[in-house]
Design brief:
InterPro entries: aa-tRNA-synth_I_CS, Gln-tRNA-synth, Gln/Glu-tRNA_Ligase, Gln_tRNA_ligase_bac, Glu/Gln-tRNA-synth, Glu/Gln-tRNA-synth_Ib_cat-dom, Glu/Gln-tRNA-synth_Ib_codon-bd, Glu_tRNA_lig_a-bdl. This protein is an alpha/beta fold. The chain contains 14 helices and 27 strands. The chain starts with 7 loop residues before the first helix and ends in an 8-residue tail after the last strand. The structure holds adenosine-5'-triphosphate and magnesium ion (2 copies).
């Protein structure tokens, strides 16, 4: 199968190019700047930008800013940064608010054509008149207003003469339509709230369906990809595009485009829906993510426990790993919940390929190699990556006193224990075989130091170098290692469906108190010296990243992205 035909959307796009319906593919990614992007958005981004790129077209980044008061320029900057981080760039950066004047003229045109009217019903009354799935709606008493009266009232709405909510502009479609979205949907509402881009220029704001459909048409979008919940809105989307007919009415947009220097090439876009990405152990509602931040339950939108893109980034997840997940999941119209382990596995796979190896000890126990002189010091060359020679090597200092992981020693070993025991042998990674000769304890009986001897014949290049011992452990030189703050992260929720409140428990109650644990550890110098946001595998421990904000070579900070193996499997 050709790669570009691997799902039904790519199939449509390919056919549209082959048939000559479109000469170029144009898509858009339209987030509302009312929060930061989350893992769910990654799917839309990979589709919108990915398909445009694969077919040699382009994708716009459009901020859907039609809800003044809820939106913030801070989020616009964050969205731009996150899209770039995922590996994509946009053709044009647009705002739905760039089109407020065009949308206003389009609304006037619909009124002139007898296809829209000003309604005085209150929101509650409107709901009551709308009917139900089984009952047709009733016409509003204002539905019969003349074109002249509607034009006058709508112009006065625009002039700010009426209070919020007192009037609405509605499309005149069909109050008995089976599809509720066609029962005279609202096109404009009055809202005297300053807007982050247009200030107080507008006391009225277009509704989502109207603004979205026309923004697509204005930008010349060919394929408007969105999530399944908009399937029922598609007839309204088409109604807006067809009845405004931008291509046939350049007077609606040309003067505005010329004044603002906007490139407008109206199209008749096709809306195509796909299923949302839902991940277990995740919350993908911006409102709830905001609540976590506002209540101080996490340390901000970029807290590594958050499944926002910036949280995952800070955690050490990679754009390549996230893109791999989206590619693996494919595109369909089937809603499902994806196991979080699948995301973690994609991150592991990407980091396994790309992350250099380092040694770090997170729960240190001193090991003294008694048969080496006090001042013994050597520098050992270690490959950065076992499967990728191109990654080269680094020098690892080795000396008489080492830190090893406390759990790599057991005085009374459990069955099957392959690491260090009193009188036993283990291989020190890259050094040779060491035998534990003595166990030093403090007054309380706690093991504070091990003393051992290194078998000189087991060292690299020596005849006994290949001698078999059961286990291999990692280490760092106590004198050379750099003390590091290591943040051990885990899933933010301890149940697969935190959102499911059918058992009467709020999603907040499912927060995993163990999701962040901070320890002091020791890392080899080559790890400490890394630039912020460098990914490593700490051997035998997991994948880590130097924190992009807090890490300094003299005070290193590492975040655990993911353990080497799934620890959540049942
Ligand atoms: P919320 O309801 O939490 O505010 P949203 O879906 O309204 O989220 P938008 O900013 O409007 O967020 O989303 C921008 C685009 O991303 C839309 O096209 C939307 O369909 C898509 N998107 C949002 N969430 C997901 C998801 N979980 N999976 C796939 N696409 C998504
Ligand atoms: Mg939303
Ligand atoms: Mg939305």
């Amino acid at each position: 199968q050709r790669p570009e035909a691997r799902d039904f959307i790519r199939q449509i796009v390919r056919e549209d190019l082959a048939s000559g319906k479109h000469r170029a593919i144009r898509t858009r990614f339209p987030p509302e700047p009312n929060g930061y992007l989350h893992i769910g958005h990654a799917k839309a981004i990979c589709l919108d930008f990915g398909i445009a790129r694969e077919f040699g077209g382009w994708c716009n980044l459009r901020l859907d800013d039609t809800n003044p008061g809820k939106e913030d320029p801070e989020f616009v900057e964050g969205i731009k940064e996150d899209v770039r981080w995922l590996g994509y760039g946009w053709h044009d950066l647009r705002h739905a608010s760039d089109y407020f004047e065009v949308l206003y003229r389009a609304a006037l045109k619909l009124i002139e054509d007898g296809k829209a009217y000003v309604d005085d019903l209150s929101p509650d009354q409107m709901r009551e008149y709308r009917g139900t799935l089984t009952e047709p709606g009733r016409d509003s008493p204002y539905r019969g207003r003349s074109v002249a009266e509607n034009l006058d009232l709508f112009r006065r709405m625009r002039a700010g003469e009426f209070p919020d909510g007192s009037k609405t502009l509605r499309a005149k479609i069909d109050m008995a339509a089976g599809n509720m979205n066609l029962r005279d949907p609202a096109l404009y509402r009055i809202r005297k709230v300053p807007h982050q881009n247009t200030g107080d220029a507008w006391p009225i704001y277009p509704m989502y369906d109207f603004a979205h459909a026309l923004s697509d048409a204005i930008e010349g979008i060919t394929h408007s990809l969105c999530t399944l919940e908009f399937e029922d809105h598609r007839p309204l989307y088409d109604w807006c595009v067809d009845n405004v007919d931008l291509a046939g009415h350049p007077e609606l947009w040309r003067p505005v485009a010329e004044a603002a220097g906007l490139d407008v090439q109206p199209s008749k876009p096709r809306q195509i829906e796909f299923s949302r990405l839902n991940l277990s152990y995740c919350i993908t509602s911006k409102r709830k993510l905001a609540e976590l931040v506002q209540r101080g339950l996490v340390d901000g939108w970029d807290d590594p426990r958050m499944n926002t893109l910036r949280g995952l980034r800070r955690r050490g997840f990679t754009p390549g790993g996230i893109r791999l997940l989206i590619e693996r999941l494919g595109v369909s119209k089937q809603n499902s919940v994806i196991d979080y382990t699948l995301l973690e596995n994609c991150i592991r796979e990407d980091l396994d390929d790309h992350a250099p190896r380092r040694m770090a000890v997170l729960d240190p126990l001193r090991l003294v190699i008694a048969n080496l002189p006090e001042d013994h010091e050597e520098s050992l060359a270690f490959a950065n990556h076992p499967k990728d020679e191109a990654q080269g090597a680094r020098q690892v200092p080795f000396a008489r006193e080492l830190w090893i992981e406390r759990e790599d020693f057991a005085e009374v070993p459990p069955k099957g224990f392959k690491r260090l025991v009193p009188g036993g042998e283990v291989r020190l990674r890259g050094v040779g075989i060491v035998k534990c000769e003595d166990v030093v304890k403090d007054a309380g009986g706690r093991v504070v130091e091990l003393r051992g001897t290194l078998d000189p014949a087991s060292r690299h290049g020596m005849p006994g170098a290949d001698r078999k011992v059961k286990g291999t452990i990692h280490w760092v030189s106590a004198r050379h290692a750099v003390a590091a703050e290591v943040r051990l992260y885990d899933r933010l929720f301890n149940v697969p469906a935190p959102d499911d409140e059918s058992d009467g428990r709020s999603w907040i109650e499912h927060i995993n108190p163990e999701a962040k644990r901070v320890v002091r550890g020791w890392v080899e110098p080559a790890a400490a010296q890394a630039a912020p946001e460098t990914h490593f595998q700490f051997e035998r421990l997991g994948y880590f990243v130097s924190d992009r904000l807090d890490h300094r070579p003299d005070a290193p900070v590492f975040n655990r992205a993911v353990t080497l193996r799934d620890t959540w499997a049942k």
